[in-house]
């Protein structure tokens, strides 16, 4: 599959935590950082996502917000 997003970060799924309607997917990136994605439970099922799967975190955003404590 080809997509237009340029921010495609390869990694492996560490955890899949389903909730009432969405699941939190923790991805350990190849560089060592961790990304958590929130996707629907339906998407988890359709993609057959499970711990250890090789995946891409695809980031497409029109805005980036910065906060300071």
TrEMBL record:
Keyword DNA-binding: no
Protein name, entry field: TOBE domain-containing protein
Keywords on record: Molybdenum
Lineage of source species: Bacteria, Pseudomonadati, Pseudomonadota, Alphaproteobacteria, Acetobacterales
Gene3D superfamilies: 2.40.50.100
Domain called Mop: residue spans: 2-68
